[in-house]
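tokens incoming
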């Protein structure tokens, strides 16, 4: 959860005094937010990639104006052109303990299984004053903390197991309402349960062949996709796992900023999450779209406001701010007035969502 705290109060947790006070307040508040479990990645490694691949492989965080064979062209001290290959990013490793693990070849990562590890002594015995701050960390124990970090790299598949290991009661509550897998047989009666309805990979669209579905979202803003973590120093009521804000990429064009690997998106939701279903899994007649309802991807490339009078911007692609995007509003009004997807221009795509979707080998 430290990524959430960092987003709410950046750098506050690093303060000797304010860090502890902020932590206590945020822990009391966010422990009631069980709905955050609905935002855990769905589809596992099939959708999000594994230790050695991801759909976004080859993504460059900053477009290059001058290229030779897809490499950035720079100059050496003598003014001669030098090719600089883009820094490879392993987006499939959603959480890596250490920058070296995030960058290492998959074959060099030695993982020690954590799922059946002995969690060790109960932390509550060593510091009873922290019981009102910790959620389930006090039951993890030093052995459990070490087991998590020794696993080194977590994918979208193993990260669900990680949450079950670190916070079993929270995940037990969440499993009543949410699911994160891929259905083998969508006709199985169990998928009639409401907990599957929020997962498009475990439910199917209604029999409505004349219905049209539009996926409308912003792109063109660096968006969090994977994280470099560290074990934090032992202190009073500390969170044992934190994003390593000191982890930075090799240059200004790197995808790694402050311990976070950035991909394309709307600053909150990555393109893969926003566009995949309409780009491929629902496109045409598939097991997720049995009646073949038409789908359209409408992306809105982010353009920040040019002055203060524009407020949040009339061409913004940022999460929430996009509601003030004139192009989006025009599309919605035209659709509400009866225009079809073809009449508003069909697909409008600025990202590589179709290219990335083809890399996902999902049974359709």
């Amino acid at each position: 959860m430290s990524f959430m705290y960092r987003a709410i109060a950046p750098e506050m947790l690093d303060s000797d005094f304010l860090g502890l006070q902020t932590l206590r307040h945020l822990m009391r508040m966010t422990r009631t937010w069980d709905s955050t479990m609905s935002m855990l990645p769905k589809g596992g490694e099939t959708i999000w990639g594994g230790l050695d691949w991801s759909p976004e492989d080859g993504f460059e965080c900053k477009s290059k104006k001058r290229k030779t064979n897809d490499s950035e062209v720079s100059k050496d001290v003598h003014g001669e052109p030098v090719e600089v290959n883009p820094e490879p990013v392993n987006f499939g490793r959603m959480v890596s303990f250490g920058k070296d693990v995030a960058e290492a070849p998959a074959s060099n990562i030695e993982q020690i299984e954590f799922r059946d590890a002995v969690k060790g002594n109960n932390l509550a015995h060593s510091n009873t004053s922290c019981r009102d701050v910790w959620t389930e960390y006090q039951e993890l124990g030093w052995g459990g903390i070490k087991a998590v970090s020794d696993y080194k790299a977590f994918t979208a598949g193993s990260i669900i197991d990680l949450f079950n290991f670190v916070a079993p009661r929270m995940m037990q509550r969440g499993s009543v309402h949410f699911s994160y897998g891929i259905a083998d047989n969508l006709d199985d009666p169990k998928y009639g349960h409401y907990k599957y309805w929020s997962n498009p990979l475990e439910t199917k669209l209604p029999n409505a062949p004349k219905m049209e579905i539009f996926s409308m979202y912003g792109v063109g803003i660096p968006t969090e996709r994977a994280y470099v973590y560290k074990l934090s120093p032992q202190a009073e009521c500390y969170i044992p796992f934190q994003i390593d804000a000191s982890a930075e990429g090799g240059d200004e064009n790197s995808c790694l900023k402050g311990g976070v690997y950035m991909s394309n998106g709307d600053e909150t939701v990555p393109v893969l999450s926003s566009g995949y279903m309409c780009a491929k899994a629902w496109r045409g007649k598939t097991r997720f779209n049995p009646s073949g309802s038409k789908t359209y991807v409408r992306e809105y490339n982010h353009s920040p406001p040019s002055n203060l009078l524009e407020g949040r911007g009339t061409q913004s692609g940022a999460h929430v701010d996009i509601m003030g995007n004139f192009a989006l509003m025009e599309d919605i009004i035209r659709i509400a007035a009866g225009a079809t997807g073809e009449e508003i221009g069909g697909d409008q795509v600025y990202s590589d969502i179709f290219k990335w979707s083809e890399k996902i080998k999902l049974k359709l």
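note: Confidence is low (pLDDT under 50) at residues 1-5, 63-77.
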